[in-house]
Design goal:
Radius of gyration: 17 Å
Strand content: 25-35%
Low-confidence stretches: 1-20
Helix content: 25-40%
Number of strands: 11
Largest sheet: 5 strands, mixed
Number of helices: 5
Strand order of the largest sheet: 2-1-11-5-6
Length: 165
């Protein structure tokens, strides 16, 4: 019984630590996450600046995209790491771009395919004029069956917000 009590206290401590770990952004917010999330830092949303995104677990995907010649190497936070950081509870994400384009991405895509929110391409930070600041990247070369209109449409660039549903 004493063992369970210690585990319960440890669990509450970890949850409290996670809830307090998401400070408001110190820099310019690049991403706003809303919806069915358990951890917020600005009202009922979780806002992230560049440094906060870089502090998440990172991924790298080398792949071809139809908008560029040849393969490129993309680096950025794993989408699953972001979802874990905000305690996302929904099953799908509405990912919206600066130009009001939006796509729905199942959370299982983030889990199953290792999607990243690319912040750089070939070592260069993505700027708005080059699909930045954030670009949803799937591992198309690693998983050729994803290279179709469904998943290419989910490859939102100029991402500004994610609504967890």
């Amino acid at each position: 019984m004493r063992y369970r009590w210690h585990l319960a206290v440890l669990g509450l401590t970890l949850v409290s630590s996670l809830a307090m770990a998401l400070e408001p952004p110190a820099g310019k917010p690049l991403l706003k996450v809303s919806g069915d999330i358990g951890i917020t830092n600005v009202g009922d949303q979780a806002w992230f600046d560049r440094d906060m995104l870089l502090a998440l677990d990172q991924g790298q995907i080398s792949t071809h995209l139809p908008w560029y010649d040849g393969a490129s190497v993309y680096d950025g936070p794993l989408l699953m790491a972001l979802l874990q950081a905000v305690d996302a509870r929904g099953m799908e994400l509405r990912v919206a771009a600066l130009n009001d384009f939006a796509a729905t991405i199942p959370v299982e895509d983030a889990r199953d395919f290792g999607i990243i929110l690319a912040m750089s391409r070939d070592g260069n930070a993505l700027e708005v004029r080059h699909q930045g600041p954030l670009f949803v990247i799937y591992p198309f070369d690693e998983r050729p069956h994803l290279y179709n209109a469904v998943y290419l449409t989910r490859s939102v660039w100029q991402v500004e917000s994610i609504d967890v549903r």
